[in-house]
Amino acid sequence: MKEKTAFSWVWSYVRKYRFGMAAGLFLSVIVAAMNMVNPLVTGSIVDKVIKGGQHELLFKLIAIMLGVVVGKSIFRYSYQVIFEHCSQNVILKMREDLYAHIQKLDFSWYDNAPSGNVMTLLTSDLDKVRHFVAWVLYQILENSLIYIFSIITLASINWKLTLAFLVIAPPVLLLVKKFKVHIRPAHMRVRDQFAVLNTRVGENIEGNRVVKAFVRENYETERFEKENEGYRDVSVANADMRVKFMPWIDALCQVLPVILILFGGYLVINNEMTIGQLVTFNGLMWAFIQPINMFGNLVDNTQNFGASADRLFELYKAEPKIKNTTEAENSAEGTVEKTSIEGRVEFRNVCFAYNETPVIKDMSFVIEPGTTVGILGPTGSGKSTIANLMCRYYDADSGQILIDGKDVREYNLQELRRNVGITMQEAFLFSDTVEGNIAFAKTDASFEDVENAAELARVKEFIGDLTDGYDTIVGERGVGLSGGQKQRIALARLFLADPKIMILDDTTSAVDNDTEYKIRQSIKSRSEGHTAFIISHRVSSFENCDVILVIQDGQIIDKGSHQELISRDGYYHDVWAEQAGK
Ligand SMILES: Nc1ncnc2c1ncn2[C@@H]1O[C@H](COP(=O)(O)OP(=O)(O)OP(=O)(O)O)[C@@H](O)[C@H]1O
Ligand SMILES: [Mg+2]
């Protein structure tokens, strides 16, 4: 199969509107042809009415001219509406598809994708495509046709003068060819730098509290200025390129009136042409000049579109590494319902590295269904990574992770993730109500369900303090709530989802001891019949754990119940002694 290019990818969207577009292009052909009429009629007025004395023709000729003007306006209006309509629909679908596509991309893609770039792609790059479909496309056709029609029309009147007009064509072509080579990379640089600028703004807004806390406003402003200046520089370089080429094209066009007067005048004197024909030439001179002037502009626009289409196509081509096997995909037709799994988890010689440095090293363990497992280890030891692997956010480099004896890679991803649920270390809340944030886990949940989950996660204890209770909008990233409150809402979300295997990654790190104790009781009641993993730095969190894994440097260095672990020397004992003040 022929490999898809950026252009054919765009075409696959435009194709759907090909009939509408064809109708629009047809109208633009008519308009281009109509452009020839009035200069011809003007010539006739000079030759037949003024010089030939056929005065009765005047009204007829003027009526034709008026008719052409009105017709042109109507046709022009019609095809512009058509193209605008088509282009907006094309972009709607493209944006929809790309948005759905980035939902499928996995963690490792997001690890390397600056958010500003994605934003730029979905807004300004897409707009370049829209502009191409809505305007550039028909401008190319219309201008080419105006140029060709004017050559034909004028050549039929006088081929010598037409030929003289054409002498400027080769140098213009050469200039535009050179321009084209240089302008595309210049556009690419502008788009890339624009994305960098967007990322900088996004990060600054997101991190504005940190900026203020460290009094780094000036530093941030300077950093922004640097990128901003970078953007100006690439834009200026881009504009320079244009202004360098355009005056040459313009100057070449200025030669035409001179040719008209000198050579045209000579032909009239020699009786090879009438005055009326000279007037027609004069009237159609714009039809020679406008396409040439537009030529550079359209090539510029096309290259700009090309650069954006390439960037968008790049996003479209990005493939998630984590995806369903064909069987898993086929086994889950339509939406995947939660399947009843037992909840047995096994790591079999698992090795994993995000990049080069190994993070999980030959890890093996078996957790029987219904067990509550604690995971303790120094920061950076790989605890969250274990969770990431269980949910299949990343795939192990070697070894196997098995749920109920089946490799996680053989599960349908949705099915797997409905059964292995997690509250992430950094609680994320959407700009939505508290209820909406909890119900995110299960959109068809009743308010009672949401309330029950909220009660279990101890959200109920502070909900009364919020102005609108469950209807309080928690801002972007849950601003307006304390760290512990956010964590509890995130926990309620997991409780509502009620997956068979629950992973709580440092979920109570920001709550006080008393609340943590209460949450522990909730987890205990909730984890009945579930397999639960509790990742924590607090030994007290492991109170109800059947077994605790002690992780260091990507390996399990110890394992046992709380009593067993404190009875022997080691990391666990040290942490416990320190926290309990022994
Ligand atoms: N997305 C990532 N890309 C590259 N490296 C990563 C990524 N996430 C984590 N790491 C690295 O992997 C190692 C283990 O990280 P992990 O988040 O699993 O630690 P952790 O035990 O959960 O620590 P903490 O107790 O601080 O939460 C760290 O050295 C970390 O720098
Ligand atoms: Mg972690």
UniProtKB/TrEMBL annotation:
GO terms for cellular component: plasma membrane. It is a multi-pass membrane protein. The keyword Electron transport does not apply. Pfam families: ABC_membrane, ABC_tran. This is ATP-binding cassette, subfamily B. The chain crosses the membrane at residues 20-37, 57-75, 132-155, 161-179, 251-269. It comes from Treponema bryantii. InterPro entries: AAA+_ATPase (IPR003593), ABC1_TM_dom (IPR011527), ABC1_TM_sf (IPR036640), ABC_transporter-like_ATP-bd (IPR003439), ABC_transporter-like_CS (IPR017871), P-loop_NTPase (IPR027417), Type_1_exporter (IPR039421). Its main location: membrane. Residues 345-578 form the ABC transporter domain. One of its GO terms (molecular function) is ABC-type oligopeptide transporter activity. Residues 22-304 form the ABC transmembrane type-1 domain. Keywords: ATP-binding, Cell membrane, Membrane, Nucleotide-binding, Transmembrane, Transmembrane helix, Transport. SUPFAM superfamilies: ABC transporter transmembrane region, P-loop containing nucleoside triphosphate hydrolases. It is found in: Cell membrane.
